[in-house]
Amino acid sequence: MKTQVLETRIDILVPQDLQAEEALLLEKARQACATAYAPYSHFQVGAAVLLADGTIVTGSNQENAAFPSGMCAERTALFSAVANYPDVPVRAIAIAAFTDGNFTEKPVSPCGACRQVMLGIEERSGDAVRVLLYGTEGIYRVGSVRTLLPLQFGEESLGSRS
Ligand code: THU
Hints:
By secondary structure, the chain is of the alpha+beta class. Helices cover about 25% and strands about 20% of the residues. It contains 3 helices and 7 strands. Strand 2 (about 45-50) and strand 3 form a beta hairpin. The longest helix has 14 residues, at about 110-125.
């Protein structure tokens, strides 16, 4: 038997550690929580996507009485960004969540489906997408979506079909 150790490097930041661009993106993500439609979970998520030309596109979770028909904040923001600016690479995404009257203490963690979409968008441009996860106790930062998705299924997995 062999064992492979996969390492994940996450920076844990306090607000003073953030670059101005990162602080603004996180602020946009926090603000986007207010646009969530979450009458079922009462868990409001906001995402803000930074494009290479400086444009910021935001999104929030949009729930539906038929639960699986709803959509997460990250995919709402990312699909909106690439649909409206198909030729501008995505540089970063910030995510925040608000519930029970407060932003979450622990950094919000994107679901598996959103990580997969984030990976696809990173692969599309070939440039790493920085991810910022907001929590009142600290902010997680990773330099690439690949860090959040070990053993990923990406375009390479499709081999000659991609
Ligand atoms: N949600 C997101 O928007 N993003 C995530 O990464 C995790 C979960 C939403 C989906 C649903 O509307 C609510 O949060 C509770 O799961």
